[in-house]
Every structure is written in C-alpha cells, then in structure tokens.
Specification:
The chain has 200 residues and is mainly alpha-helical. The chain has helices at residues 12-28, 35-42, 46-52, 56-80, 85-101, 109-116, 123-144, 152-169, 174-194. Helix content is 72%, strand content 0%. The protein starts with 11 loop residues before the first helix and ends in a 6-residue tail after the last helix.
Length: 200
C-alpha cells in the first residue's frame, strides 16, 4: 500500500526505498541483496523501511508491481501511433526490442524473479504468473485481430519468442537477438495473414 504525504503524494522516503530496491534487485538479483544494503543506499532508517513495507517480500512485490505498470504503459504507448492490427503487433515487438537494446539490460525482471522464487505457491511467483498471463492475453487479443484462425497458439508463440530474446539479449549481441526476434514476429504475422480466406 502506498503511504501518502499530507499533500497527497507518495512519501518521498517510500519512493526512495522503492527506487533503490528496483535498481539493485534488477541489476544484482533479489536474494543477493539484503535489507541493510537497501536501507543504506536509500539513506533511510530501518524504522522508516518498516513503516512503508512489512518486510523484504513486500518490497519485492512492490518492485514487481512497478515493473508490471511500467511494461503495461510502455506497450500501450507503443500502440497509440498505429491503427492496423498487424502494425500494433509490430509496435509491441519493436518496444520489446528497444528494451533489450537499452543500456543496463539484465533480462526480464519477471523471469529473473521466477528463477529465484520457483515455488508456484509463493506470492512473488504468483505475481510473476499474473504479469505473464496479462502479457499472453494482451498479445493473443492483438493477434486475434490479424487473420481469422484462433490466436491462442500464435500468442504462446509470441511469448516464447519474447522469452528467448529476453534471455539471449543479455548474453550475446543484442542487435542480432532483436533482429531475430522481430523476424520471428513477422513470421507469426505472415502465417496468420496467409491463413485468411481468399478475398478477406
């Protein structure tokens, strides 16, 4: 829950704590970073941290929530400048590619978190699955508007391409990785458009 100041904004201390956690968790991993490190770098007291977060797990969940909101906003904005359904799919692909090519890219925050919290019942793992379900639903809905065949398989294909690009993007040449990813997206679109009935 966001703690608010009297002026109605999010507490500066909470924002500083979360910003510090986001930066370090993404760059270095979650388990390797202790609460003391976050407190020190955020320049707050332990009491301040516990006033805003119940513990490290709560802070990790807030980190993933912020990542989720950022990705939703990024992909929504990417689609605003285009209108054709296939161009919307391409815009989502390009936005993902730009992220992979960005400085400091360390893979997918959600895949990284899932690797550290493999228990499907753990709240952090559930938060990862919720984000991934949203992403799958979003791309499947977009692909359903391209062609007349059911889009569930195409949606899963897109997600798998994206997962592979996210994993490879921080291990090898991100330019080649994103080129391969975008070629794969075009392949999905071609397959769906080729399946349209003649004259459609």
């Amino acid at each position: 829950m966001n703690r608010k100041t009297k002026a109605g904004g999010v507490s500066e201390a909470r924002a500083r704590l979360l910003g510090t956690a986001v930066r370090i968790f993404y760059a270095e991993g979650i388990h390797s970073v202790g609460i003391d490190r976050i407190i020190e770098e955020a320049k707050v007291t332990r009491a301040t941290l516990y006033r805003h977060f119940s513990g490290k797990e709560d802070l990790v969940l807030a980190y993933l929530e912020q990542a989720d909101q950022g990705i939703r906003a990024q992909l929504s904005a990417a689609q605003e400048s285009v209108h054709a359904p296939d161009d919307k799919v391409r815009a989502v692909g390009r936005a993902i590619a730009e992220g992979i090519r960005s400085e400091g890219f360390r893979g997918c925050a959600f895949l990284n978190a899932a690797a550290e919290y493999p228990d499907p019942a753990h709240p952090i793992h559930r938060a990862v699955l919720a984000h991934r379900q949203w992403f799958l639903d979003m791309v499947t809905d977009l692909l359903a508007q391209v062609g007349d065949e059911p889009a569930e398989s195409a949606g899963r294909h897109f997600v798998m391409l994206r997962d592979g690009a996210m994993a490879a993007g921080c291990l090898s040449d991100s330019g080649l990785v994103t080129e391969t990813f975008l070629d794969g997206v075009e392949g999905i679109l071609r397959a769906r458009m080729a399946a349209r009935p003649a004259g459609a």
